[in-house]
Amino acid sequence: MSAIAASLRRQWIPVATLGLIAVAIVTWLLAGHYISSGGSTSTLPQAAPAVDQAPWKIDRSFEGTDGKLSAHEKKALLARSDGAVDLVKNVFDGIFLNPGDLDEIVGKTFSKDAARSLHARSLGFPDGSTEVKTLTRHADVGVSSDGARFATAEVRIVASANAGSKDLKVKQAATLWIERDGGSWQVVAFDVDQKPAK
Amino acid sequence: MIKRAIGVIVAIALVCVIVPLIGPRDDVATAAVEMGAVHESYVPAHGKIYVLVIGNDARFGNPDQSRADAIHLVGINIDKMRGGILNFPRDSWVSIPGHGTSKINEALYDGGPQLLAQTLESLTGIHIDYWIMTGFQGFDGLVRDLHGVQYNVPHRIDDNFSGAHLDGGKQILSGWEALSFVRSRHAWPNGDIDRTTNQAKFLLALLKKLRGQVDGDPSRLLDWIAIVQKHTRLDIPASDQFKLGVLASHVQPGRVGIQTVPVTIGAVGAASVVFISPGAKTIYAKFRKNAYL
Questions:
Q1: Contact B246 A177 (CB under 8 A)
Q2: Using CB atoms, which residue from B223, B229, B239 is nearest to A63?
Q3: In B, which residues are within 8 Å of A65 by CB distance?
Q4: DSSP helix, strand, coil percent of chain A (3-state; round to 5)
């Protein structure tokens, strides 16, 4: 019995030692210590550090009514127009932060004409840009008070990124004309202007 | 014999009572602006849209059985974002499908906006997508709810017939002033021909206001739609109204040409009419091809 115990102890010690070393290496890698003292990056795969993005500032208004809306009416219009607000956020997150998803987002939520208008322009940053950071994200969303059938969104975004050796900064002003068909919202027209920002 | 006469009188009485109760009479009585589709489905042909704009002569409180005082065919070329307004004098002597030859404004009386649209389609060969019609009350209400429209009146106007008493120059016209201006023909050397041109220019002033407001704040389009709806019996689907509004707000007034069909003044019996000159066919062909002038 004691011989078996001694044998197990002899096997366990090297296994545990190897395990500890493996955990240490993984921890070290995850902590980002793979950059050598000389500043050059190692050939190990790089996990992109998360970049803080500006919060969305959404101002919503209800248009086309002479009188005041009741609290109940406002609540209903807010609920119905949430989809339009989500759509706006998705589109611009697609343009700047998730360009790989943009085609799918546009395919699902843009009319053919609006999609053509979007694709006709080179928006966001060039392929391969890194450290994309939205500095301001603001949308004025007007919702038709007649049952939230239609909405307009005036969107202003300032963002920066690094493309190779260049630091880029752009400002984008866009207008979306959005229509609700049943439960889903569709962009029927899209205007956008993107310029370099100081 | 007496029984038969009573029967006829009762039948006439029933018709007089029942006919006004059926159909859209109630709507018409309260609707100052009416809009509708000329054909069943809305399919812009090759990026072109044509809308017939009608101003009828119905007085306040008497919106039925009106004739067309203002007849304009508005075209928009979506690809080029250019447009045109083709004006037809109300006394134009034309063939009205199924009703012989008459003044074009009779088509509205005989068969409503649909017949007027068919008359113009037959005359020009242009496929009209929608019509929109307003009367005195609707026009006044529309301009009033828009808080007036800026217009450059070319000179001092005094027209006791239309009630227009306006100084020349750029000014904000109220609903009533705008109505008296677009109705005025006695203050102009070419009467109705000048009036129809002025009406088209006022349409451009409306477009300019729409653009100016929507450029500054896109959500104002929703207010415009609501203002139109307030004065409207709606036959155009809401979705198409929205799209038309978006489209209109994208067209620069400077890219919309105005043309009045060339006419010669004449008479048919005791009625003074205008005959559309053969040269108009060239204008129709160009407008049909391009949707702009």
A1: yes
A2: B223
A3: 226
A4: 35, 35, 30
Closest-CA distance, A170 to chain B, in angstroms, reads 22
Contact B246 A142 (CB under 8 A): no
Which pLDDT score, from 0 to 100, does residue A122 have?
87
- Which of A32-36, B67-71, B78-82, B162-166 shows the highest mean pLDDT? B162-166
- Evaluated on CA atoms B223, B226, B230, B235, the torsion sign reads positive
CA angle centred on A193, ends A192 and A197, rounded to 5°: 140
From the centroid of its chain, how far is CA A19?
A: 38
Contact B219 A142 (CB under 8 A): yes
**Type of residue numbered B76:** I
CA B96 from chain centre, in angstroms, equals 17
Amino acid in position B149: V
> Under DSSP, is residue A110 helix (H, G, I), strand (E, B) or coil?
strand
Mutate which of B220, B224, B234, B242 to disrupt the A interface (most A C-beta within 10 Å)? B242
Q: Is the pLDDT of residue A135 over 60?
A: yes
Inter-chain touch A154–B222, beta carbons under 8 Å: no
Pairwise CB contact (< 8 Å): B219 & A154: yes
Q: Do B218 and A150 touch (CB under 8 A)?
A: no
Distance from CA of A167 to the nearest CA of B (A): 32
User: In this complex, do B243 and A188 lie within 8 Å of one another by their Cβ atoms?
Assistant: yes
**What are A51-90's pLDDT values in tens digits?**
899 999 999 999 987 778 899 999 999 999 999 999 999 9
Structure tokens given for A61: 């208004």
The span from the CA of A105 to the CA of A91, in Å, is: 7
Structure confidence by residue, pLDDT tens digits, B57-107: 776 555 557 888 899 999 999 888 999 999 999 999 999 999 999 999 999
Nearest-angstrom CA–CA distance, A47 and B225:
51
Q: Tell which wins on pLDDT, A153 or B250.
A: A153
* Interface membership of A177 toward B (CB under 8 Å): yes
Residue B121 to residue A102: CA distance in whole angstroms: 44
How far apart are the C-alpha atoms of B37 and B30, rounded to whole Å?
20
